[in-house]
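Extended Data, panel c. Modelled sequence:
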Amino acid sequence: MSAGDRGNHEREVELVAPGWAAIDQLIGLRYPGQVPHQFASRTAYELESQSPLPAISVLEGAEPRHWHFVTYGLSELFEKTSNVPEISGFGFELTMRTPREEGEERPPAWPLRFLQALGRHVLTTREGFDTGHRIDLGGPIVYGGDTALTAVALVPDTTLGKIETPFGSLLFLTVVGITAAELAAMKKLDYEKVVEMFAELEPRGLTDPARGCWSENPQKSPVVKRYQLGIGF
């Protein structure tokens, strides 16, 4: 795509999908010069399908090297349809960060499937997520995979944050994979303490299916225990 064609495409998106354009603009500011990997769905908003979200973009993050997935479709992309003028759609989009190996040129497929499944849940039940929410998945985060991560927690995306769109405010929530033991440790924490805990343990919000439990890590287990016991709060 030439520079001229890209400019025309961006103007077309802005006119046809102002909410979509607002997300694209933010990504362009946070990842200047990058052309995202974008995975569009042929069954957008079809709740019976496996991919009801219109698209997911994936960026190449750094420090450490990772893939940064961003959903489109839980906020209002094309027009204002909700009765709440100050919030766009459900008021959030989901993001996820997974490790990017040296020389890895394409993002893994499992986060795309996982985020689409979460999006389908929201669109079907009409129940949104918020900062500090935790979800027991009842199985591994990677379907059929060998991982200890069987739950997730949601925290604000430290790169994308919160923006105002033509259809209202939009918060980007990072989905972080956690173990059953970590989920249990967070059981009595309020939402604010969950966010503070992640700021200490995993400030980037990285989901690494290969990692062990924080409770068994000599550097991180004291932090988990401190929050679990409420020491120093």
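Residues 110-125 form the longest helix (16 residues). This feature is highlighted in the accompanying rendering.
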